[in-house]
Design a protein that fits this description.
The protein starts with 16 loop residues before the first strand and ends with a strand. Helix 1 runs antiparallel to helix 2 and helix 1 runs antiparallel to helix 5. The longest helix is centred in the middle third of the chain and has 21 residues. The strands form 5 sheets. The chain has a 7-stranded antiparallel beta sheet with strand order 1-20-19-15-14-9-8. Strands 7-4-3-11-10-2-21 form a 7-stranded antiparallel beta sheet, covered by helices on one side. A 3-stranded mixed beta sheet has the order 16-17-18. With about 525 residues, it is an alpha+beta fold. About 35% of the residues lie in helices and about 20% in strands. It has a domain of about 200 residues.
Length: about 525
């Protein structure tokens, strides 16, 4: 692809990594090295991605864990595969039960927002279909980190301290396992301090020995069921046993002659595709990248896309999600014409009839993996299975309690999901994986790095380094401190409710790996975390 590999507009930021035998990029240096170790041992990109994924559950428990969900896009041979590793609501969770308990919104913490964790099953299914090395070998680096400990990097330590502080304010038997599992004498590990997780090592060893089934039908499933019954949870062994990953056909959108791919709903990747479909009708490169005019048009396109996504995205196994209609290019062209020079509020349009880690791995044979997993909102629900190191996610808080809404909570239904892996290709040729984590920042981050790449010719590291914006559902537009003053003032003059902030982690954390025409890879890693892109 046509990139300016000398494009360094942000002094002091990192240069891209270039390698030809393989690259692994993640938010934690030791996790990236775990994946690279597996590549160098003869594994392929899927093996490396699973090794990285497992290591991240140990090394960055603030953002993901064995009790979370995941999604992946995998280029293998001449085909792009998608896998949805999100779990459904327990059979005992219903709108009537929540209403009877006095809830008008989905709870965020405790057992009620806990859905079936899908990430371990996803690892197993990916490995069964594409893995080359034995699963025990792939999980060995993560087991070593859990059993022997690993030092905590600065950004992880920061978010870990926030999670432990919040845990001190939660009371009830369901929360009793958190501090013994994730603290050192009631506090978070400090930067550089070694943290050992014996329960986590125990669980990983069981998975390495017996496969993913042990999590859903064996010893681990029994432990989860037992703890739920003892502490008021709704999750049962039957819910775990019913869970399956789903192999899906990725959805896509043409943008500037390239094809951007996402996982279909119940995820929000479709919002990124709609925003890009709108922007494809606007000549962004007629405006400087660092201009209020360019930012404004991207933001308005994202707002239009979110208006539709929040109205229509749900679990397609439970309701009909109008994917083709949402991605209709004529409709998106009409949406583009709504964008003027001032900030606006948009509703969904009529349809034509008819707490996360992102990482990527590629290998010398051209296999590429774009993968994401999460427990959501830091450590998730706050519920931890004692002695197993499993923090259960709170993805159920993605449901709504509005009767008749497509995303209304229901037994056995998957919630609206924020985590989304991305992939880029051109004329059927793979370019590579990309992603930006961070709740509803994710599609916004996808749009921004693709615009930086395809409209402004930035290489992966420059595309990730560039100042970002984040639009909130309450109408607030948040800008990073590094955003030029003339852009901030220009957006405010256009009617945006601008807030400039320095909160760590609020603008997402991404990784990008592109394949060049030469066959080599060029990669970038997020400057807003402890990330590392490593090549071979």
């Amino acid at each position: 692809m046509d990139l300016n590999l000398h494009h360094f507009p942000y002094p002091g930021r990192r240069v891209p990594v270039i390698a030809e035998r393989g690259v692994v990029a993640s938010s934690h240096p030791l996790a990236s090295q775990a994946g690279m170790h597996i590549l160098q041992a003869g594994g392929n990109a899927v093996d490396a991605a699973i090794a990285t994924a497992a290591a991240l559950t140990v090394l960055e428990p603030t953002s993901n864990g064995l009790g979370g969900d995941g999604f992946a896009l995998i280029w293998a041979g001449d085909h792009l595969y998608g896998i949805n590793g999100s779990g459904a609501a327990p059979a005992r969770l219903s709108l009537d039960a929540l209403s009877a308990a006095g809830h008008t919104d989905m709870p965020v913490y405790g057992w009620l927002p806990v859905t079936v964790p899908g990430v371990v099953r996803m690892w197993g299914d990916m490995h069964d279909r594409f893995g080359r090395l034995p699963l025990a070998q792939v999980l060995a680096p993560a087991i070593s980190y859990a059993a022997e400990g690993a030092p905590t990097p600065p950004m992880v330590a920061y978010f870990w301290a926030r999670g432990v502080a919040a845990a001190h304010n939660r009371h009830g038997p369901e929360f009793a396992g958190f501090l013994p599992t994730f603290s050192i004498d009631g506090r978070a590990p400090r930067p550089g301090e070694r943290f050992v997780s014996p329960g986590h090592a125990r669980t990983l060893r069981l998975i390495a020995r017996h496969g993913a089934d042990v999590f859903y039908q064996g010893e681990i499933a029994e432990a989860i069921d037992r703890f739920a019954r003892a502490t008021g949870g709704l999750l049962r062994a039957d819910d775990l046993a019913r869970h399956r990953s789903e192999w899906v056909t990725p959805i896509s959108m043409q943008y500037r002659g390239y094809t951007v791919h996402e996982i279909p709903p119940n995820g929000q990747g479709i919002a990124a595709l709609m925003a890009l479909g709108i922007l494809d009708h606007i000549e962004l490169n007629g405006y400087a990248r660092e201009s209020a005019a360019s930012f404004h048009r991207q933001i308005e396109a994202m707002k239009l896309a979110f208006a539709d996504a929040f109205a229509y995205v749900a679990d397609p196994a439970s309701v009909a999600v109008p994917i083709n209609e949402m991605l209709n290019r004529q409709r998106l062209a009409e949406r583009a014409r709504l964008i003027g020079e001032q900030a606006q509020t948009y509703g969904p349009s009529a349809l034509p009839r008819g707490g996360t880690v992102y990482f990527a791995a590629v290998d010398r044979d051209g296999m590429m993996v774009s993968m994401i997993q999460s427990t959501y909102m830091g450590f998730g629900s706050g519920v931890v299975i004692p002695d197993y190191g499993i923090a259960l996610h709170n993805r159920g808080c993605g449901f709504v309690l509005t009767p008749g809404h497509p995303n209304q909570v229901a037994p056995g239904k998957r919630p609206f999901h924020t985590i989304i892996p991305g992939f880029l290709s051109k004329d059927g040729v793979p370019i590579g994986p990309f992603g930006v984590m961070g709740a509803h920042m994710q599609p916004q981050g996808h749009v921004q790095v693709i615009v930086n790449t395809l409209d402004y010719g930035m290489h992966p590291q420059a595309a990730l380094d560039a100042p970002r914006w984040r639009w909130e559902r309450d109408g607030t537009l948040r800008l990073e401190l590094e955003t030029p003053r003339h852009v901030i003032e220009g957006l405010a003059a256009r009617g945006h409710q601008v807030v400039v902030e320095s909160e760590l982690g609020g603008f997402g954390r991404g990784q990008i790996i592109w394949r060049l025409a030469s066959g080599s890879y060029v990669a970038g890693t997020e400057p807003r975390c402890d990330g590392l892109a490593i090549g071979w």
